[in-house]
Design brief:
Elements lengths: L17 H22 L4 H5 L2 H4 L4 H9 L5 H16 L6 H18 L8 H15 L1
Helix pairs in contact: 1-5, 1-7, 6-7
Length: about 140
């Protein structure tokens, strides 16, 4: 049994995937921008007082809740961090992640019209392109 700490060795010695890294970064940027826009509108004091839990929150308060902590921003930021890390390690995300992201954004734009969901085309296109170039 050795007392020296184990060093981390990446599973792959492949060069970083710039497209995958930028796809992850763009997801993080979208999540941060979305939070910055809606955080100013959020009724934080009433939320912390229990209005959401007690059912006394109005429709606007609920909508903003689902646009912020209850919505996609936390998951999108975490996915962006994961994708960027995989890209730095030289891995590529499966193509279905890009295609699903594109479909999600397209469906949202179809339902609510032009909005920030149009930005999902950026990480989706980067992931799809990274996947296609990795196959060659």
């Amino acid at each position: 049994m050795s007392t020296t700490p184990a060093t981390y060795r990446p599973a792959s010695s492949a060069p970083p995937s710039r497209l995958t890294i930028w796809a992850g970064r763009s997801m993080i940027i979208i999540a941060v921008a979305h939070t910055a826009v809606f955080a100013l509108l959020a009724p934080w004091s009433s939320w912390l007082a229990g209005d959401l839990r007690n059912g006394v929150a109005d429709a606007d308060s609920l909508a903003i809740f689902w646009a912020l902590p209850g919505g996609f921003v936390v998951v999108l930021a975490l996915l962006g961090l994961l994708v960027a890390r995989l890209g730095r390690q030289g891995h590529h995300v499966p193509g279905y992640v890009g295609w699903a992201t594109l479909a999600w954004g397209a469906l949202a734009v179809t339902l609510i019209g032009p909005s920030g969901f149009l930005l999902t085309a950026v990480p989706a296109a980067l992931l799809i392109t990274a996947n296609l170039t990795a196959r060659r």
